[in-house]
UniProtKB/TrEMBL annotation, chain A:
Its main location: membrane. The keyword Nuclease does not apply. This is Dipeptide transport ATP-binding protein DppD. SMART domains: AAA. It comes from Cerasibacillus quisquiliarum. The gene is dppD. GO terms for molecular function: ATP binding; ATP hydrolysis activity. Belongs to the ABC transporter superfamily.
From TrEMBL, chain B:
GO terms for biological process: peptide transport; transmembrane transport. The keyword Transport applies. The keyword Ribosomal protein does not apply. Gene3D superfamilies: P-loop containing nucleotide triphosphate hydrolases. This is Putative oligopeptide transport ATP-binding protein YkfD. It comes from Cerasibacillus quisquiliarum.
Length: 337, 340
């Protein structure tokens, strides 16, 4: 593999779920890549497919009812969609780790923290018990848990919410993965604890060079730690760019709407401009642009055809018909009138 | 907005305590000696981290919980000393909107039945026709329409359900509304819809709001004044811009600095106060100042004495030994730095 190749490349990913109500088209042709050592944030409304996308990378989509119906997921050049469950198991938790939103579901209440931390090392990397414990103590120190030696013997319920989330992070990091997927890792935490955890992510990334996919709905968190951002809407990525591209030059009407609908602590009295309406139903997603029903600039074409991707700049890509040359000249005429 | 010094206090909370009994004779001090008042027509925001006692204070004000000590005075009357008959009248004047729009609406009732229920209890209208007309009116006020009346809650999105909850709270034409995390369960793009609706209703109807939330950015956006809680205590209270521009309590400073701002350039430059340690338990709170175990500038006295609640600057209240009259003269500047 070339050194400058992205560590992860997702092409045309489709995931569906069959339910009583019909087939949910949860992820509908997602493309993105992640460079080595960078943090990519995936943002978007509840139900837009963020977790399904990350679970697909880990091959953790429950089948049935779920299914990856198309697409490829290249991790260091290997297509994960083609791997057997056995091969996948050797990758999970070792090369790619995941942190879930709720720290309690990720921990087994009946096993000590020490057992849970060392499990992966001993199974996958055949490390001796003593070595594994040594490593567990080191990693507990890294994530900021005092008295790690004694703490290893305790059970999850003996820790506070913030500490449990640190333990979950320690578990994800102990095998030194190259890719870390964090699905809303701080959503369940208070902001003062969130600040501790975000700082921890930054320190760890500097020290180990791990690549991170961060899923969150908190734009403040994104501004703080993302290098690049992918904005998802109704199962599709509709805009991607560098952190500053998205915050200072948003092009998609949904991205602009999202930024205008959050209040800013540092600004006084600005008006909130909500996006009216709600996202479409994923049982029968619209043919055209999924944002068309809520978009203030909607044109006829938007309802009919999904917008092609345009390169606003090299780093900044958008799927919106407003970026099409024909729409631009149309808008210019309207503005001149 | 409230230049007038004679602003009318519609609600007064005096030294209120709410303790919950626990095993082995222990007590959980959910609210411990909280004092503040709310002016008529304002939005008073109450912020603080999970478990600090925000909902408990709201429920105690509503009389849904008995108090352990103190007094809640609403329009001159002690809420906890009302007769059954007076209570009935009280609930017409004060209403509550809850956090979870999914759990707080009865799934077996239609929207019309949900909104009519309080009107029926209070026999507001002589006949069904008048009552139905009022339901239609309320639906329109909250941005829904009369066609929605015969549907069930599960047919609505979260933001729409919260509107139904608001319509229900407005049904009795209350003067005072306690909104306990009314937007926390909603998507970011939908939160703004509900907040704007609350603001419009306030201007149109002259409502008074007690707005409870943990999201300080949103609380600052909607509130005239803000109280900051920590572990059952109110630690600071002032106008919302002052709270941001000139926070006094070390906890408020840390809280403000912990909230990420959706602007990468600002985030890059910001210095943060990272608090050490975890939130202590309200069953076994620290002696003296409850914040001292995490406070970056704690002093000896903080472990020994509970700081008093005092007006450190005009209309700016704080409970911290740094600001005691004969306290040490230390200098804490800005909320990006704490220096001693
Ligand atoms: N096991 C499942 N069975 C059926 N539908 C599912 C399942 N898992 C996810 N979905 C559906 O797939 C869509 C995408 O869900 P996903 O969990 O990825 O959303 P999300 O973007 O992570 O949202 P949130 O911010 O709420 O976590 C949703 O419509 C969801 O209902
Ligand atoms: N009915 C109850 N019985 C016993 N303890 C309670 C009860 N209600 C609340 N508590 C406790 O009182 C404390 C304050 O809880 P409260 O619900 O008021 O917090 P909050 O500030 O609203 O938190 P959140 O932001 O999580 O809603 C917590 O420790 C909680 O566990
Ligand atoms: S494609 Fe059309 S509907 Fe979609 S965001 Fe762009 S202008 Fe709006
Ligand atoms: Mg999710
Ligand atoms: Mg609460």
């Amino acid at each position: 593999m070339n050194k400058d190749e992205p560590i992860l490349k997702v092409n045309n990913l489709h995931v569906t779920f069959s339910t009583y109500g019909g087939t949910v088209q949860a992820v509908r042709g997602v493309d993105f890549h992640l460079n080595k050592g960078e943090t990519l944030a995936i943002v978007g409304e509840s139900g837009c497919g963020k977790s399904v996308t990350s679970n697909a990378i880990m091959r953790l989509i429950p089948d049935p009812p779920g299914k990856i119906t198309a697409g490829n997921i290249y991790f260091k050049g290997v297509d994960l969609t083609k791997l057997s469950e056995k091969k996948m198991r050797a990758i999970r938790g070792v090369d790619i780790s995941m942190i879930f939103q709720d720290p309690m579901t990720a921990l087994n209440p009946t096993l000590t923290i020490g057992t849970q931390l060392t499990e992966g090392l001993r199974q996958h990397q055949k490390v001796s018990k003593e070595k594994a414990i040594e490593k567990a103590i080191d990693i507990m120190e890294v994530v900021g848990i005092p008295n790690p030696k004694e703490r290893l013997k305790q059970y999850p319920h003996q820790f506070s919410g913030g500490m449990r989330q640190r333990i979950v992070i320690a578990m994800a990091l102990i095998c030194e993965p190259e890719l870390l997927i964090a699905d809303e890792p701080t959503t369940a935490l208070d902001v003062t604890i969130q600040a501790q955890i975000l700082e921890l992510f930054e320190t760890i990334q500097k020290a180990t060079g791990v690549s991170i996919i961060l899923i969150t709905h908190d734009l403040g968190v994104v501004a703080k730690i993302a290098d690049r951002i992918a904005v998802m809407y109704a199962g599709k990525i509709i805009e991607t760019g560098n952190n500053r591209d998205i915050f200072y030059q948003p092009q998609h009407p949904y991205t602009k709407g999202l930024l205008n609908s959050v209040p800013r602590l540092d600004l006084a009295g600005e008006k909130l401009e909500p996006i009216e309406g709600t996202p479409p139903d994923l049982f029968s997603p619209p043919k055209g642009c999924p944002f068309a029903a809520r978009c203030p600039y909607v044109m006829e074409v938007c309802n009919k055809v999904f917008p092609v991707q345009t390169e606003y700049t090299d780093s900044h890509h958008v799927n919106c018909w407003l970026q099409d040359e024909r729409a631009k000249s149309l808008l210019a005429t309207i503005a001149n009138e | 907005m409230f230049e007038d010094k004679e602003r009318k206090k519609i609600l007064q909370v005096h030294h209120v305590k709410k303790y919950f009994p626990m095993d082995r004779g222990k007590q959980l001090k959910a609210v411990d000696d909280v004092t503040f008042h709310v002016y008529k027509g304002e939005t008073f925001g109450l912020v603080g981290e999970s478990g600090c006692g925000k909902s408990t204070i709201g429920r105690t004000i509503m009389g849904l919980y008995n108090k352990t000590a103190g007094e809640v005075i609403f329009k001159g009357r002690d809420v906890h000393a009302l007769t059954e008959r007076e209570k009935h009248a009280f609930y017409r004047e004060m209403q509550m909107i809850f956090q979870d729009p999914y759990a707080s609406l009865n799934p077996r009732l239609t929207v019309r039945e949900i909104i009519s229920e309080p009107m029926e209890v209070h026999r507001l209208f002589p006949n069904k026709r008048k009552q139905n007309a009022r339901v239609d009116e309320l639906l329109e006020e909250v941005g829904l329409n009369r066609d929605h009346a015969n549907r069930y809650p599960h047919e609505f999105s979260g933001g729409q359900r919260q509107r139904i909850g608001i319509a229900r709270a407005l049904a009795l034409d209350p003067e005072f509304i306690i909104a306990d995390e009314p937007i926390s369960a909603l998507d970011v793009s939908v939160q703004a819809q509900v907040v704007n609706l609350l603001k419009t209703l306030q201007t149109e109807k002259g409502l008074t709001f007690l707005f409870i939330a943990h999201d300080l950015s949103m609380v600052k956006h909607i509130s005239d004044r803000i109280g900051v809680m920590y572990l059952g205590h109110l630690v600071e209270l002032t106008e919302s811009d002052t709270l941001y521009d000139d926070p006094l309590h070390p906890y408020t400073k840390a809280l403000l600095s912990a909230i990420p701002i959706p602007d990468p350039d600002i985030e890059e430059k910001r210095e943060r106060i990272i608090l050490k340690g975890e939130l202590p338990s309200p069953i076994d709170p620290p002696s003296g100042c409850v914040f001292r175990t995490r406070c970056p500038v704690a002093m000896d006295i903080c472990a020994r004495k509970t700081p008093t609640w005092q007006e450190a600057k005009p209309d700016h209240f704080v409970a911290c030994h740094l600001y005691n009259e004969n306290g040490p003269k230390v200098n804490i500047q800005g909320h990006n730095k704490v220096e001693v």
